[in-house]
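note to self — DONT lose this again. spent like an hour looking for the file last time. sequence + predicted structure for the chain T wanted, 383 res
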Amino acid sequence: MALIPLCAIAQYNPETLRTPVAQPAQRIEVILPQVNGYNIYKADLHTHSIYSDAETTPAYRVREAYFDGLDAIAITEHIEYRRIEPKMLKFLKGYNDGKAIKAENPDVIRKAATKSGIKADLNYPVSEAVKESQKYGVLVIPGAEITREPVKIGHFNALFTTDNNTLYDPDPLQSLRNARKQGALIQHNHPGWRRTSCDKTEFELKAYSEGLIDGIEVANGGSLYLPIIERAREDNLYVASNTDIHTTTGEYYRIKGQLRNMTLILAKECTLEALREALEAKRTLAYAGGYVCGEEQLLKDMFLASVKYEVISTDKKGVRKINLTNMYSIPLEFKTSKNALPIKLLPYHSVQLSVAKGKDLNLTVTSMLCGNMVHPKVNIKVK
């Protein structure tokens, strides 16, 4: 009996031919190795929706994260900037006898909110995402973005929050303290955005000196802040790479053939408790645009866990020809010597290399960054 393709089975109407478009959508699987006994979970710790200034709902963000291969996502609406709110209220004026309802303090980035405060329920976007996550198995981390003037003060994500409605204070430093008071971790976002350098501002020096900063974005969207890799090490911060997505990741990443930015979290399991423990222990790496950034030894461990080699032949001089295989989903690039051309090793591909008798394979991994254009060097002992 011949099998009928699923796409050809008519549903409800026998005169309807189902085209391939009717096939179920498929998730990108980003397969990564275990490193030092930990799983690598893919997370985006900085996203937005229509409840601040983006173009989709929190529920869509969850579905988007699932199809992009993520394990966890943080919902981090701007507290002080909610540009869609006035439009929502205009749309809903029929619920107020046709009278327009004025939004209260939808933009207090550069000024203090009036006494009426912020009326929006800043916990709602998280609850909407959590509800949707039950359909997709994507873990939702509750959060919000403390959003102030970007050049002198900056933006900071409060993660693992318990009540986003109690974070705001006219004093941005007090807002960070409010986040810490409820047990939140605080991430310094896009530290070079709209600035001429990545140096700390006077405000940031105060926040750092109070111990209010736990992590920092090495990459945000299409920007990779090279000096921040070293700052993270010096200040003992976890590294992050996030989308800060306002449009869609399909538009910003997929259509360009790119994986989205990911904070790679090394943890035992994908729970709020385990991911938080990993962030506090600084067991993270930052993936953006083909680069993986972070602490040197952790990068080396990830590279060595990602490849395997096989000796194919040995000639009369003892020179061994080997196959080096990338076993996982992130492309690797390396040089075999200082003046050699970089070799790009695609996921699930192999390259043949020659190793002299009695020598090891020494590589400079140019797709990994442990400092400002500083690449880790790995040693593979070829038997």
